[in-house]
Amino acid sequence: MTTERPNRQAAEVAKGVYLLEIPTPFSVGPVNLYVIKGERLTLVDTGPLTDEAWETFVAGLKSIGIRPEEIEQIVLTHHHVDHCGQLERIRRVSGASTLAHPLAIPYVEMDEDFLSFHDRFFYDLYKESGVPNDKLIIIQKYQKLMMTFSERSRIDAPLKHEQTVPGLPGWRVLYTPGHSQSHLSLYRAEDRVMIAGDHIIKRISSNAFIEPPRDQSAARPLTLVQYRTALQMCADMEIDLALSGHGEPVVGHRELILQRLQRNWERTDMLRHLLAEGEKTAYELTAMLFPILYEKELPLTLSETLGHIDLLTILHQVECRKKEGVLYYSL
């Protein structure tokens, strides 16, 4: 549980853009929501479904003279529960429409067929990765997390790369996948401001979470490759201020992105050295790369390991063999 106390006063962080810091029960700490005063009063992200999050949200809006009922539309940067959990609660009060990337829809609407496939996908992935049977309970823990800190809601309109955000002239959508398949950011060229969600965060490198494909017959997305590509796209852009989903704004985004990409390759090199000692499963590699964290944060750390295996595979620097349903990697 986080011990950080959020600021209940909203702060104007760019022209017509206000930051609301909302508490979460997760180790990442508070989540940042943004209110944009445009043709439509727009909220970016909602925070998790907790009473404390709701009370802080209402107080933050009040500090800038807004009531929850006045919110006209909600834009989601992505579908993780710390960013969209209290979506339906806000919709019930305000009647606001919701805009998000199409890949957020099955999560937000809790599509039963997709969520069933989601669980099968992770069961198979974890088994192939050599995760012990007693650790597979993490799949049920994810279900409980969703049901505890979010509730079924709906997406009214999809947002896609490069389109203008309805009701917000001057703001355009950027598809920035990697941290999640549904992740998008908003960019205003007039003053080079980007609302970056969890794509660019100052104090931590966003994890490129492994997620199932939307098409059940397709291969899983290469999330770390996606994340690096989206970072490189942003490095080529003129961004004076990146407003993050957690923590303080980012100034000097190119330097930060370069550091992230370099550290990323350093971890890939670590993995290469570990594989030079002999073949290993993804779970074994995860335990070696993250000896303190891997048991507590298995989905996060295993995603990181698999992402670096993907990079080595693309470079034709790793081989894989399957034995009794488990994948073993070697140089």
From TrEMBL:
Q: Which Pfam families match?
A: Lactamase_B (PF00753)
Q: Where is the signal peptide?
A: none
Q: Which Gene3D superfamilies match?
A: Ribonuclease Z/Hydroxyacylglutathione hydrolase-like
Top-level taxon of origin? Bacteria
Q: Which InterPro entries match?
A: Metallo-B-lactamas (IPR001279), RibonucZ/Hydroxyglut_hydro (IPR036866), Sec-metab_biosynth-thioest (IPR050662)
Catalytic reaction annotation: 3',5'-cyclic UMP + H2O = UMP + H(+); 3',5'-cyclic CMP + H2O = CMP + H(+)
- Residue limits of the Metallo-beta-lactamase domain? 30-246
Job description of the protein: Counteracts the endogenous Pycsar antiviral defense system. Phosphodiesterase that enables metal-dependent hydrolysis of host cyclic nucleotide Pycsar defense signals such as cCMP and cUMP.
This chain belongs to which protein, by name? Metallo-beta-lactamase domain-containing protein
Naturally occurring in which organism (per UniProt): Brevibacillus borstelensis AK1
